[in-house]
Design a protein that fits this description.
The chain is of the alpha+beta class. Helices cover 38% and strands 40% of the residues.
Length: 230
């Protein structure tokens, strides 16, 4: 491959990377903002005669872990206790609120009242940090209730845990290897708690995300690396 062909291939790669980043962080956010502004304006007309609103959200975390709790040596073998822990924790919020200041609320919906979020978004590569730690998501909640007044609400938590265990004895006797299972035993724990809220709930601080990368973000990272090392 001669120098001209290499240069053409490099220019094509740069153009592809630039076009991809332009789409992801230029045109798509712009179209989303235009769509959001139009929906907000339409919603403002529909909300004139509404006295209260309802909102709800639910999140669930699941846990599944296998443990070898103990291991005891025996003549010619050993004995173990195997334990498996499974569980889930669900949290749901139900809120009812009214609109106290429509201008403030719709200014918030249009992104005009949160300078911290704006400053974060203009930082170079801040969106890459948001792939791993949701700083931008947290900052966007700081003015989420501006212009609203809390009426009533509740928080409901539900836990369901199961511990399953069995004893296993493995050894050698008279030249034969044997395995003896003592059978399964299990314990189940279920608990539900409901709390009446007196105000809007606070958003949790930024935390490390479980799925920081997906195909789109991998493509974005490849385009960024291409631009960085070109």
């Amino acid at each position: 491959m001669n120098r001209r062909q290499k240069s053409r291939r490099r220019r094509n790669a740069d153009t592809l990377g630039n076009s991809w980043l332009e789409l992801q962080y230029g045109w798509l956010p712009l179209l989303s903002d235009v769509k959001g502004a139009a929906e907000t304006a339409a919603k403002a007309l529909d909300d004139v005669y509404r006295a209260s609103y309802r909102a709800s959200a639910r999140a669930k975390a699941e846990h599944d872990q296998f443990l070898v709790q103990t291991r005891t040596s025996l003549p010619g073998g050993f004995k173990t206790s195997e334990v498996r822990v499974q569980g889930k924790h669900e949290v749901s919020y139900h809120l009812r609120y009214g609109m106290q200041s429509p201008p403030s609320y719709y200014a918030t919906a249009l992104g005009l009242t949160n300078p911290l979020l704006l400053a974060w978004e203009v930082l170079p590569f801040s969106f890459v940090a948001d792939w791993f730690i949701g700083v931008g998501d947290y900052l966007s909640t700081l003015d989420a209730t501006m212009g609203l007044n809390f009426l009533d609400g509740s928080k409901t938590e539900f836990w369901h845990w199961t511990w399953t265990g069995k004893g296993v004895k493995i050894g050698t006797e008279n030249g034969y290897t044997y395995r003896y299972d003592s059978g399964n035993s299990s314990v189940e724990w279920v608990y539900c708690k409901r709390t009446v809220l007196s105000n809007f709930p606070n958003a949790p601080p930024p935390y490390w995300k479980d799925d920081p990368l997906n195909l789109t973000r991998i493509a974005n990272a490849g385009a960024l690396l291409l631009q960085f090392f070109k």
